[in-house]
UniProtKB/TrEMBL annotation:
Residues 692-759, 822-853, 894-942, 992-1026, 1096-1160 form a coiled coil. PANTHER family: CILIA- AND FLAGELLA-ASSOCIATED PROTEIN 57. It comes from the Eukaryota. Keywords: Cell projection, Cilium, Coiled coil, Flagellum, WD repeat. This is Cilia- and flagella-associated protein 57.
């Protein structure tokens, strides 16, 4: 909640909080999710809603300003929520929210050169420590944003360079979080994350279009294509391919060849059992894996497979979104979400509705095909354009561009009525009683009665394109604004009282004053008028050209004020046709005001604009002309209408994105006008008399049916008692035989048990001895092997020491020889220095050559020594590693044998425990046998007693059978009588059917005649309108002709005076000039002269048309034979109806007689039964 201008006293500011929000954004990927507390998470307007449908409570998380969500995804542990948001200026970024506190935890930025790139899909890794993102072509990059302190971003190409495919979807491995799968058109890559980026571990060459995929396990990937195919990829290789819509099982143990063979064998059976499913869209979407199985979407169907074994999945459920009132493509499922208990699934479609279903059908239900049910109420799927409330009931009525009208009850949070039309609805308005409503279409305005489940049209007005309709505060008048007219009608007799004309432009809004004596209207030409309803005159006229007054309202208290919202973001207050103050709404774009809502107390005002801002303006206004605004930022688009509830405690709003919201207002003590407490508690509804009669008839027929079923039930009880006695005797015999068999089986089982126990003890002793011998041999072998290896290791170490000593001696010898040669050379040089000074250069050269040779020789010696040392070192190191590996292998074998020994020990202990359990069970079975023997003895006593009772009852049954035979004979006689009566009734029924067919034909003819009459009436109406227009034109022409005669008369008089000047040429010239100047400048004369020919032609054309129409109607009136034929048909219809009523009375009399006879027979049977029972 942001304050544009904060008021000085916050206690006086009216605050609102959301009470009921109905809406859903369908432009967001992943717009449905479950959290751990089973709250449904979905975006609506500029917030994220957390809706608990069990308690019907909502929480909201507001998105940052000037941002829109594009993708929403949830982590696997359902504690974090990632939202890809797009800012108007800063581009795209990812916000991480913590679901427990609804606080923003992290802010992740995409790389700088990819902030404006469109993102295809976004997922959490399985450990919830990173987010993987795939971008849209042509970039086709894959990013992994780590949720660490540094915010590491790893990026790479989502496709192979040079490929013609594209990346569209991504899936994360549940075991290795650095392993991802990327799919798209002719693309399926398995990629792994590294420190430098992403590396492609496997590039599958595919010729299909991957639309969705999910990992079932670490090495199993299920892929869905755009051509109704499921493809199983195992360890980077395609293993199995089958049709998604026809797949019943997914077996991981068979390959493609075996699957094709089994499919060909079972093809005839599949062709008989399965009906082909014709789906408009064959893409496999929303592939989702969960612990119990996996699921995917095809158009409006969801296929759920359950894991029945480690290597097999079976199809358990097919959930379908039923196609109802909207176009079929709108039922395409776009997103799915499964709760953490894996019991419930919710989906969203192309239209704004959430559906819920059972994920896996229980085995008690013998069906796999179920339908999704709407979660919550059925909301609008298009822009909501009209809103209305009433005074008697807590309901509101809305109209949308999806061609539906809905009535909402904001106390019970339910929808009471949904009505779909074939044309667009422009406006709706509820009467104060809530029993009638006005509905505006493009060509007319209809007054309807609101029934329980339908709308009944009462009156139709020819008011096209109504911009605003308002019922008066007292509910007796209705004002409808269409084009530049305002029509005032009566609510009681539905007559047009007065038509207010005066606007030059379209009337955009109307408002009633408190007493309904005046009406305020605002138009697109910049005019606001106050009308007196009784006289139709204008009391106030405010005209400001260049301004459109989109909404107007008036105060309820004196002095009387008019508030108007303009198309450039200002609110103007007028009193006595003068502008008192003008207030600018503090919005960013200075957009138009969409609606102003003023409370009846004149102390609360809310304003909405086209930018989605909802402002509360503190009243009364300041004297300086300013206002204090409080902005409640919730909506993401245009707010169309605002309304207060009748009691003034709730605020209703509708938006362009199809959201209907109800807000509760706080801090309104002393700011709400008083209201009668019983006013909003009306529960009355309208129901047609025909429906009520049908319901009463259904109740009476059901009562008769209940009585008949009670009598049948009593008869069945008596028959069941006889049958139960017979069954009891058979059960007794079978029980005795079963007991004897059980005794024999028990003895045999005891013998087998003793033999098996002896065998088990012998086997356990043998296994213990074998195990002991194996352990002793392994221990001896292990100790010997260790001694041998230790000796080898000591020998290797001694040889290494010897090599090292020899190498050091060689180095010492080489240094000694070097020193000796240098001394000898120095002595020779000193001796020859005096004698051979000329040969110094040559000697120096020879010395240098010898030095270089010696250095090379030393270098070669050192290299050879190094090589030998390295070779020996590597040899001995290899030997050491082999020995170590062998020792580790033997240790491992010893550990395995020790584990086997421990497992066998545990098995022996378990077998001993089972032996003890079997002993206890044996003792229990012996106790049960003793109890059963006692029970048998008791039952035998009961059987003897019951045998005696059965023998007595059998005698009684025989007596009753004789009586039943007599009653059956009587029943046959009555059956013959009933058959005779039916034979008498049947021919009359044939006659009735013939009459009915004749009546239907007559009714069809009457409907055709009625349609012809309607067409003729319409033609008459058109001709009358043309006649009236012609009369008006005649009046105008007469007026023009009268003016022309006067003009001609004046011209003749002037010519007479001019003729007197015939004697003097100069006077005649002057008189002619004056005559010409006087009459040549007459514009009316010019116009008459120019239009004379056109008027004559138009008059002749209209005259011919009227003569043709009159001739047509004369011929129709003269043809009286048709009327006589219709009269004759009507009389025959009346006589047929009278005969049918007589036949119905006769049938009812016969049916009543048959019922009385049946009742008499039943009464006689009961009396006979009672007499026999009393005698016995």
């Amino acid at each position: 909640m942001e304050d544009a201008k904060r008021p000085s006293t916050s206690s006086q500011t009216v605050a609102i909080r959301p009470r009921l929000i109905y809406g859903l954004r369908t432009d967001v990927i992943g717009n449905i999710n479950f959290n751990l507390s089973k709250e449904v998470i979905y975006p609506v307007e500029g917030v994220l809603a957390f809706h608990d449908y069990v308690l019907n409570k909502q929480r909201f998380l507001r998105f940052p300003e000037d941002t829109r969500p594009e993708i929403i995804t949830m982590s696997s542990h359902r504690k974090l929520l990632a939202v890809l948001e797009r800012h108007v200026k800063n581009g795209r970024y990812i916000s991480i929210y913590e679901l427990a506190t609804l606080k923003k935890r992290r802010h992740l930025e995409l790389p700088g050169n990819h902030r404006n790139t469109t993102v295809q899909q976004m997922i959490f890794t399985y450990d919830s420590r990173a987010i993987a993102v795939v971008t849209h072509p042509p970039d086709e990059m894959i990013f992994m944003l780590m949720l660490d302190k540094v915010g590491t971003v790893i990026e790479g190409r989502a496709t192979v360079t040079g490929s013609h495919g594209g990346a569209e979807c991504i899936a994360g491995n549940p075991s290795d979080c650095s392993f991802l799968a990327v799919g798209g058109k002719s693309t399926l890559l398995l990629m792994s994350k590294s420190d430098r980026g992403f590396t492609t571990s496997n590039n599958l060459k595919v010729n299909y279009h991957v639309t969705s995929m999910a990992f079932l396990s670490m090495d199993l990937l299920m892929v869905g294509t755009n051509q109704d195919m499921l493809i199983l990829v195992e360890n980077g290789e395609q293993k199995l391919k089958q049709k998604a819509s026809e797949a019943d099982t997914v077996d991981l143990l068979i390959d493609q060849e075996q699957f094709d063979r089994e499919r060909n064998v079972q093809e005839p059976r599949f062709a008989i059992q399965q009906t082909p499913q014709h789906l408009p869209d064959k893409r496999v979407l929303c592939m989702t894996a969960f612990t119990k199985g996996f699921a995917f979407i095809m158009f409006n169907k969801m296929f759920v497979f359950e894991r029945v074994s480690k290597f097999k999945y079976e199809r358990k459920t097919i959930l379908t979104v039923p196609v109802t009132i909207y176009a079929e493509p709108l039922y395409q499922i776009t997103n799915i979400a499964i709760d953490h208990k894996q019991e419930t699934v919710i989906v969203t479609t192309m239209h704004s509705q959430i559906y819920v279903g059972v994920l896996i059908v229980p085995e008690t239900l013998k069906t796999k095909h179920l339908n999704f049910e709407p979660l919550g109420v059925l909301i609008h799927t298009g822009e909501v354009i009209a809103l209305s409330v009433c005074a008697w009931k807590p309901i509101l009525m809305t109209a949308s561009k999806d061609q539906t009208i809905r009535i909402w009850n904001y106390e019970t949070a339910q929808i009471e009525l949904v009505r779909k039309f074939q044309v667009d609805v422009n406006i709706v308005e509820l009467n104060s009683t809530g029993l009638m409503a006005a509905i505006g279409f493009s060509d007319q305005l209809r007054i309807t009665q609101i029934f329980m489940d339908d709308l009944n049209i009462v009156k139709t007005y020819n008011f096209p394109h109504c911009n605003d309709v308002r019922y008066s505060n007292l509910g007796h008048l209705m004002a409808a604004a269409f084009n530049n007219n305002i029509a005032i009608t009566s609510v009681y007799n539905l007559d047009l009282i007065i038509n207010l004309k005066g606007h030059n432009g379209t009337v955009l809004s109307v408002s009633w004053t408190k007493t309904d004596k005046y009406l305020i209207s605002g138009g697109a030409e910049g005019a606001i008028y106050q009308w007196d309803i009784e006289t139709g005159s204008r009391l106030q006229e405010i005209v400001q050209k260049g301004t459109e007054y989109l909404t107007v309202c008036s105060s309820f208290s004196e002095p009387f004020s008019i508030y108007a919202g303009t198309n450039f973001g200002t609110i103007r207050e007028f009193q006595d046709s003068e502008l008192v103050r003008e207030i600018h709404v503090p919005s960013h774009s200075k957009g138009p005001i969409s609606d102003i809502c003023l409370a009846r107390s004149d102390l609360i005002m809310f304003v909405a604009d086209h930018d989605g801002n909802l402002f509360n303006i503190q009243l009364p206004f300041l004297d300086a002309g300013g206002g204090m605004f409080t902005n409640f930022r919730f909506f993401d688009g245009q707010v169309n209408k605002l309304r207060f509830s009748c009691d003034g405690t709730l605020l209703m709003a509708i938006s362009k994105s199809g959201t209907v919201s109800v807000w509760a207002m706080d801090n309104i003590d002393g700011k709400v006008a008083p209201i009668d407490q019983d006013l909003m508690k009306s529960q009355e509804v309208l129901i047609p008399r025909s429906q009520l009669n049908d319901k009463n008839q259904q109740i009476t027929s059901l009562e008769l049916r209940l009585k008949q079923q009670a009598e049948e039930f009593q008869y069945q009880l008596s028959q069941n008692e006889i049958f139960d006695g017979q069954q009891l005797a058979e059960v007794h015999r079978n029980y005795c035989a079963a007991l004897e068999e059980l005794k024999k089986l028990n003895n045999e089982i005891e013998q087998r048990h003793t033999e098996e126990m002896n065998l088990i003890t012998f086997q356990i002793n043998d296994m213990k001895e074998d195990h002991r011998h194996q352990l002793e041999t392994l221990a001896n072998q292990y100790s010997e092997r260790m001694l041998i290896e230790y000796q080898k290791f000591t020998n290797l170490r001694e040889s290494m020491l010897e090599l090292r000593e020899s190498y050091e001696e060689k180095l010492k010898k080489s240094t000694g020889t070097l020193q000796d040669t240098v001394e000898a050379l120095e002595n020779d040089y000193k001796k020859q220095l005096d004698e051979r000074k000329d040969l110094i250069r040559e000697l120096m050269k020879e010395m240098q050559d010898k030095k270089s040779e010696f250095i090379e020789y030393c270098h070669e010696v050192e290299l050879e020594n190094d090589r030998n040392m390295v070779e020996t070192q590597t040899q001995y190191e290899n030997k050491l590693t082999t020995e170590r590996n062998e020792t580790q292998m033997w240790r491992g074998k010893a550990g395995v044998l020790q584990k086997k020994y421990e497992n066998q020990k545990q098995e022996i202990d378990n077998l001993l425990e089972e032996v003890e359990i079997l002993k206890e069970e044996h003792q229990k079975s012996q106790r049960n046998i003793q109890k059963q023997i006692r029970n048998i003895e008791d039952l035998q006593k009961d059987i003897s007693d019951r045998d005696y009772a059965i023998s007595s009852k059998e005698k009684r049954i025989q007596d009753l059978l004789h009586k039943n035979q007599e009653l059956d004979k009587y029943k046959q006689v009555l059956g013959h009588k009933i058959a005779e009566l039916k034979a008498q009734i049947e021919p009359r029924e044939f006659q009735i059917n013939d009459k009915r067919k004749h009546i239907i034909e007559m009714e069809n003819e009457l409907e055709g005649l009625n349609q012809n009459n309607i067409q003729l009436e319409l033609q008459l109406k058109e001709m009358r309108d043309k006649y009236l227009s012609n009369v008006a034109e005649l009046r105008v022409e007469r007026h023009r002709s009268k003016a022309a005669r006067e003009c001609l008369h004046s011209i003749c008089t002037d010519i007479y005076y001019v003729a007197g000047e015939m004697t003097s040429p100069e006077g005649l010239r002057k008189a002619v000039k004056e005559l010409f100047q006087k009459h040549a400048s007459d514009d009316e004369l010019k116009r008459f002269v120019s239009l004379d020919a056109e008027v004559r032609d138009e008059f002749l054309r209209q005259r011919k048309q009227i003569e043709n129409v009159l001739a047509r109607y004369k011929t129709a009136a003269e043809d009286k034979t048709v009327q006589k034929k219709y009269d004759k048909l009507f009389k025959e219809n009346v006589t047929l109806l009278e005969e049918i009523e007589k036949l119905r009375d006769d049938n009812e009399g016969l049916r009543s007689r048959i019922k009385e006879d049946i009742k008499k027979v039943g009464h006689q049977k009961r009396l006979q039964m009672m007499s026999t029972i009393s005698k016995n």
